[in-house]
Amino acid sequence: MKKFSAMIATLFVLIMSGGAIGANSGENSFQLKCAACHSIGGGDQIGPDLMGVTKRRDPNWLSQWIIHPDKMLNEKDPIAMELLKKYNQVPMPNLGVTEAEARDLIDYIAAQSETQKKDSAVPAQQTTQEPPSAGVFFGGLKGVQLTALVVFFVLSTIVVFVFWQIAKSTRQPVPTIDMKSAYKLRKWFFFGTAVLVFGTLIATLPKTPYPDDFQTPDRLVYVAAKQFGFSFSSEPITSASDAGQSTIINSLELPQGALIEFRVTSLDVNHGFALYDADHSIIAQTQAMPGYTNRLRVRFPKPGTYQILCLEYCGLAHHLMHAAVTVR
């Protein structure tokens, strides 16, 4: 628990900073290490909302808090102790942040705070609320998930009926069995089962992703998972140092129908990388594992926003680990 608390606090340290938009380093650091647990103008999450923090706190205090949080906690700094109490006694660890890195992070938060302030001054357009989907009668399931549920109920009904018939037959005298008819029925049962199995294979095999393995993907997207968020780049990310040097894609847009290859890895613990369509049906998934890079090839058939969620419990903020892909 202490190790996890230190990890959460790691994210909390960087929240009190920001990056200059002109220099990409602050933005990359925030997106990679902070955005999953903290926002700028989106309200408190695991840690505090950072909008306007550069105006609420003295710049020298912020810089020292980012660079030497352990020292400030040991010295019982009043503001540091107040933050520790407010955010569940999670201490801020020393991340080895340099003065230059701290300045970049502070500048980024300041710039983003101003942008959010201007955007909030524009009245939001009214949106029409869509009527509830008929899928609510099935717990909101649609598409493949609803089909799987129906198939499950049908097969379960058949199994229950067969066992009920067998149980009922045991109460009756054993009839004389016509072996010739029994063998004839077995033959038809064998051929019927074979047709069903091979028919299912013929109908479903063309829909598997394996044929795409022989094609060159239209685009490569490198994905680095880290508690608690996903970072995208057009350059390989295999370590934290790569993440700091690579250009992070903050808004991933992909073409409809193109063959996209995601190369997925993790910078800390095991995560899941699952893509969901607008109906909340999973269309593809793979594991994000430290030390490994898994390839996931996907074609997005329709335009829209596809959600990315972590399918493996990876810590306290697991439920906040998500991202999105826009397909046009």
The amount of beta strand, in percent, is 15-25%
The count of DSSP E runs of length 2 or more, i.e. the number of strands, is 10
- Structural class by helix and strand composition: alpha+beta
Please mark out the parts with pLDDT under 50 across 5 or more consecutive residues, or reply none. Answer: 1-9, 11-23, 132-136
Please identify, by name, the CATH architecture of the largest domain: Orthogonal Bundle
The chain-level mean pLDDT equals 79
The CATH class label of the largest domain is: Mainly Alpha
Contiguous helical run count: 10
Strand order of the largest sheet: 3-2-1-5-8
Query: For this structure, what is the CATH homologous superfamily of the largest domain?
Result: Cytochrome c-like domain
Number of domains: 2
Give the overall shape, derived from the CA principal axes: elongated
Q: Summarize the amount of helix as a percent range.
A: 40-55%
- Largest β sheet strand count, sense and barrel closure: 5 strands, mixed
Radius of gyration (Å): 27 Å
Helix/strand order, N-terminal first: HHHHHHHHHEEHEEEEEEEE
Q: Which topology of the largest domain does CATH recognise? A: Cytochrome Bc1 Complex, Chain D, domain 2
What does this structure look like?
- By secondary structure, this protein is an alpha+beta fold.
- The protein folds into two domains: 2-118, Cytochrome c-like domain (Cytochrome Bc1 Complex, Chain D, domain 2); 212-327, Cupredoxins -  blue copper proteins (Immunoglobulin-like, Sandwich).
- The protein is built from ten helices and ten strands.
- It has helices at 2-15, 24-33, 53-56, 59-67, 69-74, 78-86, 99-120, 143-169, 179-204, 240-245; strands at 219-226, 229-233, 248-249, 252-254, 259-266, 271-276, 282-288, 294-299, 304-309, 322-327.
- A hairpin with a 5-residue loop joins strand 6 and strand 7 (282-288).
- Helix 2 crosses helix 7 and helix 4 (59-67) crosses helix 7 (99-120).
